[in-house]
Hints:
The chain contains five helices and three strands, in the order H-E-H-H-H-E-E-H. With 143 residues, it is of the alpha+beta class. It has one domain (14-142): CATH 3.90.1030.10. The chain has a three-stranded antiparallel β-sheet with strand order 1-3-2. Helix 3 crosses helix 4.
Amino acid sequence: MRHGLANKKLNRTSEHRKALLKNMLNSLIKYEQIKTTLPKAKFLKPQADKIITLGKKDTLQTTRILVSKLQDTNSANKVKKTLSKRYEKRNGGYTRIIKAGFRYGDNAPMAIIEFVDRDVEAKRLDKKKKKTENIEDKKLATA
């Protein structure tokens, strides 16, 4: 019988699972789209929806809960200021899971989890410029 088993264990200890969830939540909030395995995406989806719902309530208590769950003030601020405003008319269903084939190494099912009305530019947040662009910038700076 399966009484009282709320979520998947993902073959990890409870501390590892909590850290995995926190890191994936922060990445999803920062980049608004991440690629991961299908079981991890299914594990992340309800938690991400709950975080957005918390962010829609504009109180000090919910801000403190967000910071304690995410352990990152930048992510909590983005949830409060950007994402909660974007989804104020929507009653749930803030994320979607798109199946993305199978991983080459171990044939694990892959998925893309993203926010529904995501900002496409958020995905390029930490991408570095190509070397040719950097060389051109240096030439312009020295000229």
